[in-house]
């Protein structure tokens, strides 16, 4: 954790007021944003550095189909895609949110405020788009499922899934404009305790 820790806690007096409101050096979207966990790029663990699992038009269809299933927040979409790929692919917030904005501008989804966040629901135009491209949508989801099956056969799928969930939760909770010191201490304590329990296994 790069919070300026000493013994697992942020250093007292450490400047947590970086340009984006979080600790300095986090960069846009926090430490688990673009190029997040372990230097992972948008292409996900299975996509390789600098490569994307889906191009722009494919990702739009993928998100649109998931939104058709039920209204979803951006974070929900990231988590759902990562789970369906067995943890092998996790699009970054820096890719998901601009794509959602584009879908909204195209009239294929509409944003509905739910507290501090926005959930996206499909429109009639979005439903028609999915029907017109049903074969392409089916192929995209088949590709995602195949990636998940390959991941389960070749790697520690449950561990990667759990790590992916942790990364997404940390991004959601700590990637905002302001994170107070008490929250940083609490998160650090939880992570330190998890590390100690794993070490004792």
From TrEMBL:
Domain of life: Bacteria
Ranges for region Disordered: 1-34
Annotated InterPro entries: Tscrpt_reg_PadR_N, WH-like_DNA-bd_sf, WH_DNA-bd_sf
Residue ranges with Gly residues bias: 19-34
A Pfam family recorded for this sequence: PadR
Domain Transcription regulator PadR N-terminal: 63-131
Descriptive protein name: PadR family transcriptional regulator
Organism name: Sphingomonas naasensis
Taxonomic path: Bacteria, Pseudomonadati, Pseudomonadota, Alphaproteobacteria, Sphingomonadales
